[in-house]
Amino acid sequence: MDGNTVILPDAKFEKHETRIFALPRPVSLADALRVWWGEKEKYWRQGGKIQEADVIPAPAVTLPIDSWKFSAAPEDINQDASLWSAKSYSCDSWKDMPCGSWKIMSPDLKNHRGAAIYRKEFVLPAEWTGHKIIFNFQTRSAIRDKAEFHLNGTLFSTFDSKLQHPEFHGTYSKDVTSLLSLTGVNVLAVKVYGGEASSISGICDTLWFSRERNLSPQISLDGDWECVKEDLQTFTLKTIPGAFGGRYIRRRFTVPEEWRGKRVFLRLETPVINIGSVMINEQAKGLNGAFPPFGHRTEINISELIRPGRENTVELWHRHTIPTNYIGVQWKWPKESKISIDHVVIGIEDEN
Questions:
Q1: Which tens digits make up the pLDDT trace of 335-347?
Q2: Average confidence (pLDDT) over 296-301
Q3: Model confidence band, residue 162 (pLDDT cutoffs 50, 70, 90)
Q4: Please, which pLDDT band fits residue 32 given cuts at 50, 70 and 90?
Q5: Of the residues 14, 29, 33, 344, which has the maximum number of CB atoms within 10 A of its CB?
Q6: Cα–Cα dist 267/221, whole Å
Q7: For the chain, what is the largest distance between any 2 Cα atoms, rounded to a whole number of angstroms?
C-alpha cells in the first residue's frame, strides 16, 4: 500500500474476468462514515441536464364502475323504470354507496329484503370512438341475487345469480355500443332484488366497461366445424353460429405469411358461458388453468401459437369435457356437453 493507493503487482485477469479483493477499512463507525462519504464526493459529478422524453399515456381499455347513487326507498323503487333509468332523472338526494352488500355498507338496511336501485353517471374516454364498447361483470360475485340493467333509459339485460354454476367465475359481457353516447354523459341504472336467501345483497363487486380491439384484417371462422364425439375419433359437421352436443369442435384455417410477427387475436363470442379452453395447433390457451371458462366475449392473444403461411388447427373445448386431473383426483366431467357458439374471428390488432 502506497499512501492512498493499493498496488497488487501479481494480480492477473483473464478476459472479461472480475475478481474481488478485501481491503482494510477504519474500524470505528465515525471513521467508516467519513471514508464512505469521502468516496461518494470523489466519484459523484453533476451531469448535464437530461431532456425528458414526451410520454404518451396508454389508452384506457377499461372503465370501472365501483361507486353509485343508491336508494332503497319505496317511493323510488315503485316508480316506473322509464323514470329512474332516464338520463334526465335527478337522484341528488340518494345516498352514496360503494360496491358491497347493502346489508353491510348501510347498517340501517341489514334487514332489507326486496329491491334497491343503483345509478351511475359516467363519460367514456374519447379514444374509444370507433371501437365496440362492452359491459362486463363477474357472474359469481357481482350481483346478489337478481338484477335488471338499463343504459340511458333502455333495458338491455337481466341476470339471476341463482342460475349460475356455483363453482365458476365467468365474465358476463355484452356489446352495448349502440346504447351509449361517446361524447356526453351516460347513465347506468340497475335495479337489484336481494336479501331473501343470504346476508349478501346488491351490487357486491365492480362492474366495468371495456373497449374491444379492432381487428384488421380479420378472418371469420364461422361456418362448418368438425364436432368431435366422446371417443375423440369420430365427428360430424356442424355450423357456427349454432349449438350442438360433443366433446369439442375443430376447424382448420390458414393465415397469410404477412401476419408473422404481428399481434394476432382470436375473438370468441358465445350466447352462454361454456368454453373452457382454446387449442391452437395442439397448444392450450385458458384462463388461470382449466376451470375458469371464457366469458360471452373474449379476446385471446394467439400470436405465439399460429403458423403464418401454413395450415393451422383451432379447437374449442367445453368447460365440462376438458380432461382434467385436479390435485391427483380425476375430475368426473361428462364426456360430451352442449357447445354453443355465436361467432369466431381471428385478426391482427389494429393499433389506430
A1: 899 999 999 999 9
A2: 94
A3: confident
A4: low
A5: 344
A6: 10
A7: 94
Mean pLDDT of all residues in 14-41: 64
Please confirm whether the linkage preceding 59 is cis (ω < 30° from 0). no
What is d(CA 323, CA 331) in angstroms, rounded to the nearest whole number?
A: 8
Classified as helix, coil or strand, 250 is strand
Question: Within a 10 A sphere around the Cβ of 106, how many other Cβ atoms?
Answer: 17
CB 253 within 8 A of CB 314: yes
Assign residue 16 a region: left if phi > 0, alpha if psi is -120 to 50, beta otherwise? left
Contact between residue 205 and residue 99 where contact means Cβ atoms under 8 Å apart: yes
pLDDT digits (tens, 9 = 90+) for 199-233: 789 999 999 999 999 999 999 999 999 999 999 99
The residue type of 252 is: R
Please give the Cα distance from 25 to 18 (Å, whole number).
21
Q: What cell numbers appear for 44 in the block?
A: 459523484
Question: Strand pairing of 248-254 and 311-318?
Answer: antiparallel
pLDDT at position 40 over 70: no
Terminal CA-CA length for the chain:
65
Positive or negative, the CA dihedral 37, 39, 42, 46 is: negative
How far is 151 from 148, CA to CA, in rounded Å? Answer: 10
| Cα gap 153→100, rounded to integer Å | 24
pTM for this model (two decimals)? 0.80
